[in-house]
């Protein structure tokens, strides 16, 4: 049911006042696509909304209310099979350890982030989900941010008949990524089932000046673009590198001089992903010489914050993933959320 802007406690007083002045009367008005674009642009490029004259923090709050309103509305572009309750899942048969971490496979509306150091075959795992979606006759969108997945690689991996189902884009900068996310609905058709973003961390490496609120605002642009897409049934895979975090003897953040141990964490914090539909998976080698790797779910909608996620082990042999390494005495993974 639409709610009066004046009575919407999810918005601050200044946001309610600005919205009323701009002509918005109910929360249904916030579901308008034009409104969402204005707010995403203002949050993404870190200046006040042209129509509302609000700071980024206020625009972010309005965006949250916008997405809540949209989730209550059945989108007209949703496939009829989903409206009738039919559901499909994408398995990962070549890399069966992922099916152990995500029982039943990748579902519509689900997000999986796969993080790991170089050489852990993150993109290969993601492309196996792409292959699975293609076998269902579904369209996929592949975004390459670091030249890890090229058009030539895709031609070699997939049969000619699948070419019409793949939309491939190479994006070379952070502003280009923001523009793509703003226009994501125009890329998603009624048969589009999967979006893969390779090396989502990479554009942020070239903008070291983006720290604190500025970096957080850009990460939330990604979140606010993915959330409505997942609500409409789009499955999403992102891949990312990991970084080293130093901790002192009390487990607090430290530097290389005061730290006593290091842990591997995904380069981007989880704030860029909607928590209610995201599984964060890390792939961490236990030894650079043996090729033994452990995959662990760091966080998932069904996991409590202090609950350890499921694990599965595999082995890399000649740049290919091998069978599970259960029973080989692999030590525990060193990674934190």
TrEMBL record:
<dbReference type="InterPro" id="IPR027417">
    <property type="entry name" value="P-loop_NTPase"/>
</dbReference>
<dbReference type="GO" id="GO:0007131">
    <property type="term" value="P:reciprocal meiotic recombination"/>
</dbReference>
<keyword id="KW-0539">Nucleus</keyword>
<keyword id="KW-0067">ATP-binding</keyword>
<keyword id="KW-0547">Nucleotide-binding</keyword>
<dbReference type="GO" id="GO:0005524">
    <property type="term" value="F:ATP binding"/>
</dbReference>
<dbReference type="InterPro" id="IPR052093">
    <property type="entry name" value="HR_Repair_Mediator"/>
</dbReference>
<protein>
    <recommendedName>
        <fullName>DNA recombination and repair protein Rad51-like C-terminal domain-containing protein</fullName>
    </recommendedName>
</protein>
<dbReference type="GO" id="GO:0008821">
    <property type="term" value="F:crossover junction DNA endonuclease activity"/>
</dbReference>
<dbReference type="GO" id="GO:0005657">
    <property type="term" value="C:replication fork"/>
</dbReference>
<dbReference type="GO" id="GO:0033063">
    <property type="term" value="C:Rad51B-Rad51C-Rad51D-XRCC2 complex"/>
</dbReference>
<dbReference type="GO" id="GO:0000400">
    <property type="term" value="F:four-way junction DNA binding"/>
</dbReference>
<dbReference type="GO" id="GO:0033065">
    <property type="term" value="C:Rad51C-XRCC3 complex"/>
</dbReference>
<dbReference type="GO" id="GO:0000707">
    <property type="term" value="P:meiotic DNA recombinase assembly"/>
</dbReference>
<keyword id="KW-0234">DNA repair</keyword>
<keyword id="KW-0227">DNA damage</keyword>
């Amino acid at each position: 049911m639409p709610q009066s802007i004046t009575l919407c406690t999810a918005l601050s007083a200044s946001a309610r006042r600005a919205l009323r002045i701009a002509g918005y009367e109910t929360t249904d008005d916030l579901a308008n696509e034009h409104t969402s674009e204005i707010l995403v642009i203002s949050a993404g490029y870190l200046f006040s909304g042209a129509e509302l004259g609000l700071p980024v923090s206020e625009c972010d709050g309005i965006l949250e209310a916008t997405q809540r309103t949209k989730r209550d509305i059945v989108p007209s572009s949703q496939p009829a099979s989903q409206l009738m309750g039919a559901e499909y899942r994408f398995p990962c048969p070549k890399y069966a350890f992922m099916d152990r971490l995500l029982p039943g496979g990748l579902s519509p509306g689900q997000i999986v982030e796969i993080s790991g150091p170089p050489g852990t075959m993150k993109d290969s795992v993601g492309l196996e989900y792409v292959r699975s979606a293609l076998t269902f006759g579904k369209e996929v969108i592949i975004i390459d941010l670091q030249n890890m997945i090229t058009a030539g690689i895709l031609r070699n991996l997939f049969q000619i008949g699948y070419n019409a189902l793949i939309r491939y884009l190479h994006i070379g900068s952070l502003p280009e990524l923001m523009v793509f996310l703003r226009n994501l609905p125009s890329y998603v058709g009624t048969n589009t089932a999967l979006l893969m973003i390779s090396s989502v961390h990479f554009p942020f490496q070239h903008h070291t000046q983006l720290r604190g609120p500025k970096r957080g605002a850009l990460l939330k642009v990604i979140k606010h673009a993915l959330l409505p897409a997942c609500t409409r049934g789009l499955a999403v895979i992102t891949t990312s590198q990991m970084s080293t975090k130093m901790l002192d003897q009390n487990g607090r953040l430290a530097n290389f001089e005061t730290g006593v141990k290091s842990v591997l964490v995904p380069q981007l914090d989880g704030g860029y992903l909607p928590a209610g539909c995201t599984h964060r998976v890390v792939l961490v080698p236990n030894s650079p010489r043996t090729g033994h790797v452990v995959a662990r779910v760091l966080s998932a909608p069904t996991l409590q914050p202090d609950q350890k996620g499921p694990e599965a082990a595999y082995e890399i042999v000649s740049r290919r993933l091998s069978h599970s390494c259960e029973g080989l005495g692999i030590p525990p993974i060193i990674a934190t959320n």
